[in-house]
What does this fold into?
Amino acid sequence: MTKPFAAEYPVTQAKDRIIVALDVATAGEAREIIAELGNSVGAFKIGSQLFTSAGPSLVRELTGAGHRIFLDLKFHDIPNTVANAAVEAARLGVWMLNVHALGGGEMMQHAARSVRTVCEREGLTRPLVIAVTVLTSSDEATLREIGIDGTSEDEVVRLAKLAADSGLDGVVASPREARAIREVVPTAGFSIVTPGIRPLSATIDDQKRVTTIAEAFANGSSYVVVGRPIIGAPDRRAAVERFVEESEIIKK
It folds into this structure.
């Protein structure tokens, strides 16, 4: 019997919409952060650095302990390779995984279809499969370097529509483009995951297209990803609480 779709997890509070990026070098550091935050946030993100360091075993450990994990590896390869990688990620028990929209429609369709088929056959909870559009560290100058004309928003919206048409569950995009995505992809349940979130008084580090958490939610973001402002804070739980408080400044 197929288990419920991952998106059925109830999201009723601002804290449930916060994904903490475990942008650290070791499994020990990741465990320390998770132990400190407990149930204060909705999910944790494992990206390239931690996955390369600690591998699938850490992902299994965390999903086995009941933590929602967003595996942020941005799969981008030929369709069959990406589909197989996405299936293995689903078998790790992750809540969400991503591919890169620049891989094209065929690649995204194959990944979504393969994950769905395997989860149904093996009785697994199907993870959300979403697509990265344009990194929040990129701007128009970055896009021109790689031969893409137009604005960041134009490219994000185009790729978001392609992802939706390919059967994906959502996209990763800057919170500045969330409203524009909602206009072209009004589908209920289409998730917009937005990094580049900073506290009201913070610097933007190496991110270029950033907003506050309140602005992100007001623009239509489903979830926000926060890294350094939380994991680098002296009191991580207090940092999360500040984000939750700031999320109420602008109402939808």
